Amino acid sequence: MLLKNPVIPGFYPDPSVCVVGEDFYSVHSSFGYFPGIPIFHSRDLTTWNQIGHVLTRESQLALTGASISGDGIFAPTIRHHDGTFYVITTNVRHGGNFIVHTDDPAGPWSDPVWIDSPSESGIDPSLFFDQDGSVYFTGTGNDRVQQFRIDVASGRALEPAISVWGGTGGQYPEAPHLFRIGNTYYLTMAEGGTEYMHMQTIARSATPYGPWESCPHNPILTHRSRKSPFHAVGHSDFVRSHDGRWWLVFHAIRPTSYPMFHVCGRETCVAPVEWIDGWPVVNGGELITSEMPGTGLPSTIAFQEATSDEFDSGVLAIYWNHLRNPVVDNYRLSDRPGWLGLVPGADDLSGRGCPTFVGRRQRQQACTAMARFDFSDLRQGDEAGLTVFQNEDHHYEIAGVRSVEGLELIVRRRIGDLESVVARSLRFGESITLSIQATPEMYVLGFVDEGEQFVEIGRGRARYLGTETAGYFTGCYFGMYAVSSEHRARPCAWIDWMSLD
Question: pLDDT digit string (tens) for 52-109?
Fold first, then answer.
């Protein structure tokens, strides 16, 4: 079985991985989305199945006022020690660094143990459990790796933070991980910024604090200035499988066009590692490709993520997310069995509130999102529809609104400070299938008529929803939403099904 990169396509960035026996678990940044920190399982490092989220309760994850892409949860690390799983991460706006733990990675996870540490300990924290029982916190602050011993039960720092390494000179050193092979300690981190100059570097020492010897062939992984479908590779974590082989789990982007841009976010990839003269060589020193030799590990049974959700189970599927902390009562799955009801709130997609929104990641550049809406409960002042959403300043939507003439469909584009309704179409039927067709260059928004034909209402360039334009760290979502200028206590829109393929 070939190893096909990305092994986890779509916005699943900043991967961290641990292994327990023959089972691998990965976690990923979630920024301003709720639930937070998706967690995946694999046995072959090739097929990954999402098994849950680490942060599923508001007591674990406060996102009030967070930018959907520049705040929230940054760069988690997962580790396993003495039967317990630990995830350490940063809530950038609310509280800083914290640890949660569990004995079942599918959850539930504990409430946060907040880390009492100096402010310079920074972000992108990692944990290392050494053989003598010491546990090390390793993070980045003031453009250097900061480290100290920690009590993981209380979050108390056992010593002042020590600046241990500044990397090889690349900007924005981040995502450090400390690990040990025999009597040698290794410290690896990303440098260059998580864009096109991204790279992974490593150093070694006889002690956890250095002095550090930089790898003579640093960076050990980069695609900067190289011709490849993958760019911005880095933010890596090492893992050793039960058969003794080593692997690197990292993220990359798949840009298109020129100038290049990408809309699916940073995606998780895997490559083999060999150790030569005490230094890691990733993929034989060659570029990462979309198809590579398989790991040879026993295959994981793939739980195929459904392309269509008919909302029959009474709970939202594991791949759905909300913008910030949801108002739970605004999502109705039992009032009308087999339908998702959206109760509109006053917050819209362009603010930093908690709008009525439920979305799933765009995982390929070319795909089609469709949702069957019943707008019969729309009143003047209500709006509900389908959106392709990058962040609060960059999104397109096709929506139903009620006018004196009947049901009107609108297409709106929000690009930075510019927001405008760019197309309108009068529809007098109350039920309609809305659709957004994505190509590498364009999002085409419209509906499906009674003859099952797609009717375009408007379009927007994909480039303006790419991270290179929109900024920060997330990929695009397709989602359903509802908003109203009037207070509503019941759904204004019902969704029979939503598909993404």
Answer: 999 999 999 999 999 999 999 999 999 999 999 999 999 999 999 999 999 999 999 9
User: In this structure, are residues 122 and 140 in contact, taking their beta carbons and an 8 Å threshold?
Assistant: yes
Q: Which residue, 268, 272, 269, 267, is CA-closest to 295?
A: 272
Q: Which of 444, 33, 447, 498 is nearest to 305 (CA)?
A: 498
pLDDT per residue as tens digits for the range 306-354 = 899 999 999 999 999 999 999 999 999 999 999 999 999 999 999 999 9
Candidates 249, 243, 242; CA nearest to 46 is: 249
Alpha-carbon distance of 191 to 213, in angstroms, equals 16
Contacts for 162 with CB less than 8 Å, ≥ 6 apart: 146, 147, 148, 209
Q: 330-333 long-range contacts, Cβ below 8 Å, gap at least 24?
A: 330/356, 330/482, 331/356, 331/358, 332/491
Q: Which of 44, 71, 174, 397 is catalytic?
A: 174
Q: How many angstroms separate the CA atoms of 268 and 257, rounded?
A: 21
**In the CATH hierarchy, which fold is given to the domain comprising 3-292?**
Tachylectin-2; Chain A (2.115.10)
| Backbone dihedral angles phi then psi of residue 412, each to the nearest 5 degrees | -120, 140
Q: Which of 230, 229, 220, 162 is nearest to 191 (CA)?
A: 220
When the candidates are 3.40.800.10, 3.40.50.300, 3.90.1300.10, 2.60.120.200, the CATH number that belongs to 308-500 is 2.60.120.200
Give the angle 333-335-341 at the CA atoms, nearest 5°.
55
Bridge partners for 191 per DSSP: 199
CATH 2.60.120.200 residue ranges for the chain: 308-500
| Active-site residue (options: 14, 71, 237, 397) | 14
In the chain, CATH 2.115.10.20 sits at 3-292
Using the predicted structure, report yes or no on whether residue 121 has a pLDDT greater than 80. no
- Give the end-to-end CA distance of the chain in Å, rounded to a whole number: 24
Provide the Cα torsion 288, 291, 292, 297; round to 10°. Answer: 130
Output the six-digit token pair for 397: 């939507």
Q: Establish whether 174 is a catalytic residue.
A: yes
Give the 3-state secondary structure of residue 344.
Answer: coil
Q: Is the pLDDT of residue 429 over 90?
A: no
CB 50 within 8 A of CB 38: yes
Residue 365 carries which side chain, given as an amino acid letter?
A: Q
Task: Give the SS3 label for residue 300.
Answer: coil
Q: What is the three-state SS of 236-275?
A: EEEEECCCCCEEEEEEEECCECCCCECCCCCEEEEEEEEE
Rounded Cα distance, 497 and 363, in Å: 19
What's the pLDDT at 193?
A: 95
